[in-house]
Sequence to fold (225 residues):
Amino acid sequence: DGGITQSPKYLFRKEGQNVTLSCEQNLNHDAMYWYRQDPGQGLRLIYYSQIVNDFQKGDIAEGYSVSREKKESFPLTVTSAQKNPTAFYLCASSTPRQGWNSPLHFGNGTRLTVT
Amino acid sequence: RKEVEQDPGPFNVPEGATVAFNCTYSNSASQSFFWYRQDCRKEPKLLMSVYSSGNEDGRFTAQLNRASQYISLLIRDSKLSDSATYLCVVNINTGNQFYFGTGTSLTVIP
Fold:
């Protein structure tokens, strides 16, 4: 079955360490996104990518970095510069080529805890 | 001003009740509209897209009012399993960005 896979599901890190969250999709979607969700809050956009080798900052990009070397993969690195990295991270994809009403498809998320 | 605004609730309704959620959006250039359902500590899942003429999927009805810039979700005959947070999502095709409401919490009580 096609879908989006995020790994790991839970991740624990010490403060000051960089950590990379994996996101892989086999839906052949062009666009991929990273969101962050904090308890009781909505999703906030970190980075997004419309095509391979191109990505744009979202609303809260500071302290994060991404790459898009392959269509299927959009890893997110949480750097030590991110002040409050503990959160639920969601990767999503969509395919604008299917038309204006193409929804987002989400992975099952990575819950990052930094102590 | 937020791109998308929702009443956070919580909505606590008895089984079998009808409940409606509204969501307003600020950008008149918004093109696509969706309702997602999110269970506790899980990822959001697409409930339904919202079409201009309104659309229905079983007990769920979605409507769009472009003039007033809001969308709505109506749930009839609520089930215990409908308990979740419902997210309103709007797509502004420029840059293909999606904007999320903060979600409306629904609890269906036996």
